[in-house]
Specification:
two-stranded antiparallel sheet, about 260 residues, mainly alpha, about 5% strand
Length: about 260
């Protein structure tokens, strides 16, 4: 650490803390504090405006500086998080497209392990667009389920929407169940079609006079039912009127009784 001499020789030299450079341990510690310390993670997730986001970012930076004895600014921390996410996504894409399992020079085994722990199935990694970590959006797992089915049907090691499904991963029992259901529905449809065809043929074979007779009979039945409904409605109206009359008489009798008791 450099020391600068003070202008007054009687005073002690002033320590100048240099602007810290990022190391692998600091990057791992940043990811751990950001995603695994519940108080800071909750603070960042609950931020609803720029003021809250800046405040939570300052809290994260302070915790990292205290842990690593460094002097980082919130802007440095924000840029580093963005860069780590970008590197993670780039290698994941390369892994799925080319099958290259070798890590790039700027990512070590321990850092890659931490990246997988904190970035997998988290918001902020949406396809080729790298969103902010506090944004509301679908997770990587949600995008994979929407485009390629359940996660266990994706090639091992591929976590991008372009991952291919393996034929062996499709359950045979599910396919058989679907086929049996389709067969049952087909049988029901055929039977219904046969019944409708038979009924139509019977109607066509009947003479027109017979059909007209049935229509007239149905009309007569409908008239009878309408008359019964009207009679029932009139009876209900009479019953309601009678009940209301009895209720009024009972209320008047009760009022008169109370008046007599008050006079006594």
């Amino acid at each position: 650490m450099k020391k600068r001499k003070a202008e007054n020789s009687d005073t002690e030299p002033v320590n100048i803390i240099p602007r810290a450079k990022w190391s692998e341990d600091m990057e791992i510690e940043l990811l751990r504090i950001r995603y695994e310390e519940s108080n800071i993670n909750n603070l960042l997730l609950k931020a609803r405006n720029n003021h809250d986001r800046n405040k939570s970012l300052i809290t994260l930076t302070s915790a990292l500086n205290l842990k690593c004895a460094s002097l980082l600014t919130p802007e440095q921390v924000k840029d580093k998080l963005h860069k780590l996410k970008k590197n993670y996504l780039a290698h994941k894409k390369d892994l799925c497209e080319t099958g290259n399992k070798y890590l790039p020079r700027n990512i070590s085994e321990s850092l890659w392990e931490m990246m997988n722990t904190v970035f997998q199935e988290r918001i902020g990694l949406r396809g080729t667009i790298l969103a902010d970590s506090m944004s509301n959006g679908p997770t990587v797992a949600d995008e994979l389920r929407d485009e390629s089915g359940p996660l266990n049907e994706i090639h091992e090691g591929c976590n991008t929407p372009n991952a291919h499904r393996t034929i062996s991963s499709i359950p045979l029992s599910s396919s058989k169940k679907k086929m049996s259901t389709i067969d049952k529905l087909t049988d029901v449809f055929v039977q219904s079609s046969e019944k409708l065809t038979s009924a139509f043929m019977n109607i066509q074979n009947q003479p027109s006079e017979s059909i007209l007779g049935k229509i007239e009979k149905l009309s007569e039945n409908q008239l009878d039912m309408t008359k019964q409904i009207l009679e029932t409605q009139n009876n209900l109206i009479s019953l309601i009127s009678e009940s209301q009359k009895n209720l009024n008489e009972a209320m008047y009798a009760l009022i008169n009784k109370l008046d007599r008791e008050d006079r006594k």
